[in-house]
């Protein structure tokens, strides 16, 4: 699959950048760009912040995912504690990260 120059991939690994992430997504969408976001490592704690529900509404289901292994490692239940607005199919593996790298013309790490 060719990279889409109008798609921004965001690999979120740390839990301190939620305000930055929200502004980046809003700016990208205002510019007519699509975003794909993958939360992994300690960033899975961002799923418990109030702004996360707003982010879920901003990004299509197929373009937003959480690393299921990281979620479990951080003490959350991947089957019983799925963040509000998300579906079980959004609890993914690092293969989703590979998909982000493969599809997105632009890529950043937070």
What does this structure look like?
It contains 4 helices and 5 strands; from the N terminus they run βαβαβαβαβ. The chain has 110 residues and is of the alpha/beta class. The protein has one domain: Hypothetical Protein Ychn, Chain: A. Helix 3 links the parallel strand 3 and strand 4. This is Cobalamin B12-binding domain-containing protein.
Q: How many structurally independent domains?
A: 1
What's the CATH topology label? Hypothetical Protein Ychn, Chain: A
CATH architecture: 3-Layer(aba) Sandwich
Strand fraction equals 15-25%
Helical content, roughly? Answer: 25-40%
The total of beta strands comes to 5
Rg over CA atoms: 13 Å
Mean pLDDT: 96
Pick out the low-confidence regions: none
Given helix and strand content, the structural type is alpha/beta
Please state the oligomeric state of the protein chains shown: single chain
The ordered string of helix (H) and strand (E) elements is EHEHEHEHE
């Amino acid at each position: 699959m060719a990279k889409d120059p109008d798609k921004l991939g965001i690999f979120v690994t740390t839990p301190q950048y939620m305000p930055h992430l929200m502004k980046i997504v809003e700016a990208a969408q205002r510019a007519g760009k699509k975003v794909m976001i993958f939360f992994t490592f300690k960033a899975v704690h961002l799923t418990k912040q109030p702004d996360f529900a707003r982010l879920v509404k901003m990004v299509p289901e197929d373009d937003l995912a959480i690393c299921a292994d990281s979620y479990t490692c951080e003490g959350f239940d991947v089957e019983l504690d799925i963040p509000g607005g998300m579906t079980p199919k959004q609890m993914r593996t690092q293969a989703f990260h590979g998909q982000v790298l493969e599809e997105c013309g632009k890529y950043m790490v937070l």
